[in-house]
Amino acid sequence: MRLPVCVTSLLVCLLAPAAWGIDLNGVYGDALTEDPAMARAKANLEAVRARVVQARAPMLPSLGFNYSKQWLDRSFPGSQTFEFDEMGNLVTGPADDESFDDKYWETRAGWSLFNAPNWFALKTAKAGENRAEVEYAEAEQDLVRRVLHAYLDVLEAQDSLEAVESEYASVSRQREQMQQRFDVGLVPITDVLETIAVEDSSYVRLLEASALHDAVFEMLVTLTGKQYEGLAPLLPDFEVLPPSPLDEKAWVDAVLETNYAIRSAAETVNEAKSQLRARQTARLPIVEGTWQRSKAVTGGRSFFGDTIDNEVLGVTITLPIVQGGAMFGQTREARHVLVAAEETLRERRLHATRDARNQYRAVLTAVSRVYASNKAVASREAALQATQTGYEVGTRTSVDVLIVESQVLLERLRQAAAKYQYIKSLVDLKYLAGSLSASDLVRLNDHLDRTRLVEPIQMDYEQLVAEHMSEAASQ
């Protein structure tokens, strides 16, 4: 049976010489600069910080300057001028037209002496900034978690692919041997057909594992925007240990204290409290100080002369009384918003408690699964060896061997899944507790084998479909 092009390329990929691949640190570094979610979280944080500046502005002194200049042409139809000549006689005559400039300078300053709503608006903005900082820290932690999950998904897909490839190669050899035995009359045609059916099923699993391998590599592209030629896998002697501390209550307490979702909800409550106080104090007097100095210079005739200087220092008191019920409605709205925020906080604490217990138990279950799957693989491999020996001496059939080989494959897949699920469960537990950081990624990076390389397959799907269609048409 001729191997399709995609499977041939897959075998070449698995048998290619090892090269130096990128590790977890490299992938995380790329994700820090390229991940859209992190860029969005950073932009949101800066936007909220800008709101604090805006909220503080009304409480700080303001200073303004104004200058204007006008060019005027003035006429006085029917008006008379009165002047004294050199002899002291009163002389009258028509008023002359005027063309002159008017100039005006004004400097003004204002400052808030008492404005309770503005004060609480600033507190609201600061609470919003605290919440945004918590959410940004959560985004940083989430990036670590997503990088770890995506990287481990690639390694898990590689282990599964190698297991399925090993099974397919073994089944293909048995099918060839069975065909040879049938050709010399040692076995019936039914044995050949059974091995062909098993080989076809194994080939389907190989295609599925190959497609999954391509898909998980694409997840890294989503995070980093880069195509990687290969990734460093885990060392074979990776040690599986229970979480520390080995105490469910300690983990629950840690989650309730430092979980980012809970902290974000708590800051939202602080925002709502400040907003309510701002609404409640909206009816208090608002006191502002003002200072203004101006100068007007005119080139025309004026009763007050050609220059006027003016300086004003004052205090303005504003007392809101009735605004059509708007203030009462805003207060009621703010009070209900606070209740909703407090209920959200309570809900998140309840969910976090439940999730912490479940995730802690998931880690312990994953540890047990790793050890159990290791024993199961050893048992299945021993059973396979015994079955193969029985087949050689004639006490077992080829179908028995194929069945046991399938069982070995299944246990190997479970073994690979258990190891990576243990790491993911531990990562998710620390994420819940708000203690996951880049240092955890660095520690896992120390357990990577940089002398090996997990490469993308990049199957030719169009060629694969064309081959299958051609094969179906020929039958």
Question: How would you describe this structure to a colleague?
Answer:
- β2 and β3 form a beta hairpin.
- The radius of gyration is 41 Å and the shape is elongated.
- It folds into 2 domains: 17-58 and 117-282 and 324-454, Outer membrane efflux proteins (OEP) (Up-down Bundle); 61-114 and 285-318, Outer membrane efflux proteins (OEP) (Single Sheet).
- α4 runs antiparallel to α9 (398-432) and α8 (326-393) runs antiparallel to α9.
- The chain has helices at 5-15, 24-34, 36-56, 116-183, 189-224, 248-258, 260-280, 326-393, 398-432, 438-445, 461-474; strands at 62-74, 80-84, 90-94, 98-114, 286-298, 307-318.
- The chain starts with a helix and ends with a helix.
- The strands form 2 sheets. Strands 1-4-5-6 form a 4-stranded antiparallel beta sheet, with no helix packed on it.
- 27% of the residues are buried.
- It is of the alpha+beta class and 475 residues long.
